[in-house]
Amino acid sequence: MTSPTTPPAIELVGIDKRFGAVHANKSIDLSIARGTIHGIVGENGAGKSTLMSILYGFYQADAGEIRVGGAPVAITDSQAAIRAGIGMVHQHFMLVENFTVLENVMLGAEGGVLLRRGTAAARAELKRIEREYGLDIDPDAVVEELPVGLQQRVEILKALYRGAEILILDEPTGVLTPAEADHLFKILGQLRAQGKTIVLITHKLREILAVTDNVSVMRRGEMVATRKTAETSAEELAELMVGRRVLLHVEKGPAHPGPVVLSVEKLTVRDARGVTMVDGVSFDVRAGEIVGIAGVAGNGQSELLEAIAGIRRPSAGTIRVNGEALGADGRLDPARVRASGLAHVPEDRHHMGLVLSFEENENAILGYQTDPKYLKGPLLDIDAIRADARAKIERYDIRPPDCRLRTANFSGGNQQKIVLSREIERDPAVLLVGQPTRGVDIGAIEFIHKRLVALRDAGKAILLVSVELDEIRSLADRILVMFAGRIVGTPPADADEQEIGLMMAGIEAREAAE
Ligand SMILES: Nc1ncnc2c1ncn2[C@@H]1O[C@H](COP(=O)(O)OP(=O)(O)OP(=O)(O)O)[C@@H](O)[C@H]1O
């Protein structure tokens, strides 16, 4: 039991950090009690990841003190953090994919006592940790063959193996299916029961309310409030984060669908290994409606979207925009698809939506650089491009409002807004959007959802792919559920979560096949 005199697991005192002109952490004080799950929420760019990176030794604070278990510690790098008992479960896993679970867990702990004890001892220790925390996993499985939920468990095991008493998880459920997320929270509960301390960063207030004991709110580099979770609400947290009341649901009137704008017929897409990812899919999207594709990640939605956007070559089928087949002459590429009035917000902004080393204003026109409004004779009109970027920054409240900043230095949610503003402002006939609010804060979600509804009401056709069922249910006028590359159901837009959930799990599909 934690007695009132037990020092906090972590105390941050006056932590301050600047990146050039950006004051990312402003004299932050934070105390996290031992054996608790402590949530940290805040808008995109509020400074959450920076604070955690300081705690984990990726960055050094310009000022301030870190105390672990009551004693000041100098966390100069991640090794020092590990020595202080702090472990990080990364958003983008840092595992060696072709190594086994055991090899990954041992890797990097080489100098430690455990490795010197040899593989057999390490295996025994791994088993012990696994049993103690219900982290059921095969130590001899090769990491790349494991689903993401299990890969994340390997990250947790790795931290525990190094003796972590404090675990930091940054947006851990972004890549998980709902069932995997539930399992993760069970594991976190078990870890807490064993006295471990957990710091959870997430934009999902539902998760905060479901699993944390306390929650702290950051806004524009400051720590503005800490609450006992039982004594707060999603509305209060949202208001503390954003500084104003936020609509937590989408307000939209009925759709007035017009003629078919996008028509997909018997589309089949195979991946590089020849595996069928999209299997003879047909549907239409009309002007003035949002069609949502629901499904657990990996069931072909991404490939479907990429094929329509001209990034992947379908092996069969037709895609028509306003009646005209794309690539009828055998040439299908993203530039030609865009020219036909299609805009695309890709799911993976890092690999497809942005060039991170470019300045913001360069990404703000990426793919549209041949538009005459960005040209002066044969050359790019830099002044026009920057003026255009500044207008989008203002309209989409992209922070910091600096169109010359390298894109890599924007926070994740702000990077997402850069892509969205570029594609939405094209005023496309068809907008393809993949995971529009992944990693995006609550105020920005409200804004993005309003923009999508406004675009629909302006008579545009929108195809939305999202693994967030809430998002699909609140935005889509029609829902298509994808499972194993096929559309397995078209539930009404007001269908309940469980009904759609069953289709997403393929239950309905299996029954139909039997
Ligand atoms: N290496 C860096 N160089 C320059 N600026 C940076 C760097 N890292 C972060 N920043 C800036 O510091 C601020 C805080 O960013 P941080 O990533 O901590 O926010 P966050 O709260 O984690 O946001 P998100 O929810 O979007 O991940 C942002 O304005 C960001 O652009």
TrEMBL record:
Alphabetical keyword list: ATP-binding, Cell membrane, Membrane, Nucleotide-binding, Repeat, Sugar transport, Translocase, Transport
Entry membrane topology: Peripheral membrane protein
Molecular function terms from GO: ATP binding; ATP hydrolysis activity
Repeat recorded as keyword: yes
Record's subcellular location: Cell membrane
The keyword Cell membrane is annotated on this UniProt entry: yes
Any single Gene Ontology cellular-component annotation: plasma membrane
Family annotation (Gene3D superfamilies): P-loop containing nucleotide triphosphate hydrolases (3.40.50.300)
Pfam family, one: ABC_tran
ABC transporter domain mapped to chain residues: 10-245, 262-509
Family: Belongs to the ABC transporter superfamily.
Entry protein name: Simple sugar transport system ATP-binding protein
